[in-house]
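To the wet lab folks,

You asked to see what we're planning to order before we commit. Fair enough. Below is the target structure as tokens, and below that is the sequence we designed to fit it. If anything looks off to you, flag it before the synthesis order goes out.
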């Protein structure tokens, strides 16, 4: 009896099937691990050295055999996606991402109810996809990618990746001038008002140990590193890091606006909005009774 011919794609994982389907529409794709983070299989690309982040000077298609770093690893080549080098990543993948700029698109990522309300009042109707925390509004055309252009609003286009959440509904509209104008602005920098803190009496007549430049700098640097190296649970990591910093330095008057701005910048580099940074900072202060 003749055995039925099996479709080769039937043996592929769901995420890889989705990725291959997207490549037929000219959309560059890559796998994501848990926490919506790209894989990091290549030592050469450690620390985003190959340019997966917008501020990196080295920028271009990934030349590494595996999907090691964000948007630059995205590809439309089925042979690359199904190669043995990419197989481990697809086995572990939790989602599919795509490079909007590589497909000639811009995603306006709205992750709060107020942001969605603003978009409905300000931006032309376009293809819309429901996201984990809000909506993605997708336009035809590209701009630079910028986080936190408004509270709860990120722009993902060139040199960025967005999670594939389905085709959405509606018709893709041309990129409006309102979005182009937001993209040329600098990302918002949140500088919380310093909290009035009473400095405890120095021990044995010496200076507060937290005011030692090396001690404080090491603590802030370690906090930045902890946030930027988070591969999952970014929200939780940011909150716990803020809590640790405030627990160590929040009661002695050591923290300055510059220190807080560094922590917020690290969180925003991981995709956190200015509003989420403010909320996490306020919640950590409240928990510690500051």
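Sequence we intend to order:
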């Amino acid at each position: 009896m003749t055995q039925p011919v099996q479709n080769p794609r039937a043996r592929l994982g769901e995420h890889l099937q989705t990725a291959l389907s997207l490549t037929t529409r000219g959309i560059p794709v890559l796998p994501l691990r848990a926490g919506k983070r790209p894989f990091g299989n290549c030592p050469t690309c450690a620390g985003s050295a190959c340019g997966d982040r917008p501020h990196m000077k080295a920028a271009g298609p990934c030349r590494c055999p595996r999907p090691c770093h964000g948007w630059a690893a995205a590809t439309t080549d089925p042979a690359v996606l199904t190669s043995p080098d990419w197989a481990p990543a697809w086995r572990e993948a939790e989602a599919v991402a795509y490079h909007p700029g590589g497909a000639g698109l811009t995603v306006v990522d709205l992750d709060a109810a107020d942001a969605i309300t603003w978009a409905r009042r300000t931006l032309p109707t376009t293809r819309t996809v429901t996201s984990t925390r809000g909506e993605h509004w997708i336009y035809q055309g590209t701009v630079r990618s910028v986080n936190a252009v408004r509270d709860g609003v990120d722009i993902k286009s060139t040199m960025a990746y967005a999670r594939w959440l389905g085709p959405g509904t509606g018709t893709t509209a041309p990129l409006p001038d309102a979005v182009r104008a937001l993209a040329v602005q600098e990302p918002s920098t949140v500088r919380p008002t310093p909290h009035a803190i009473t400095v405890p009496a120095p021990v044995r007549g010496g200076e507060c140990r937290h005011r030692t430049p090396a001690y404080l700098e090491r603590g802030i640097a370690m906090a930045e590193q902890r946030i930027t190296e988070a591969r999952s649970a970014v929200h939780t990591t940011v909150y716990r890091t803020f809590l640790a910093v405030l627990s160590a330095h929040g009661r002695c008057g050591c923290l300055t606006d510059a220190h807080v701005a560094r922590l917020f910048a690290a969180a925003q580099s991981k995709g956190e909005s200015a509003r989420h940074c403010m909320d996490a900072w306020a919640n950590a202060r409240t928990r510690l009774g500051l």
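Structural context that might help your review: The CA atoms of residues 129 and 166 lie 7 Å apart. The chain has a mean pLDDT of 79.

Thanks,
Computational group
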